[in-house]
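SAMPLE LOG
Freezer: B-3
Tube label: C17
Construct: single chain, 106 aa
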Amino acid sequence: MRNAFTTPAPVRASSRKPSSSSVAPPSGRRSGRPSTAASSLTRREREVGAYIVRGYRDNEIAEAMCITCASARVYVARIRVKLDVSGCSRVALARHLYAMLSGRPS
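STRUCTURE (predicted):
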C-alpha cells in the first residue's frame, strides 16, 4: 500500500509513434486548404475590409457595424498584420483589399 510520502511509480514512455492522422497541422494553417491572404481573414475582418475599400475611416466603420471605435481599430490592425501591409498607407491597404476581395491581381 502506498502512502502520500512514497514516490509515485515511474511512467513509461510509449514506444508507439503517432499515426499521421493524429498529427495536427502546423499552427496557423488548416489542412486541405490553400494558405492565401483571403482565407486567412475572418468573416468579420472581410466585412471591415469592404468598408476600408469604400473609404470609411475607423469611426465610420464602427458606426456602420455597431461596434466601438476601438474594436474597429483592432480589426484594421489585424487585417494589416495578416496581409503583411503594416507600413503602407490607408489608400494602399484599400487597393490591396479591393484586389484581394474581388479576386483580381493587385
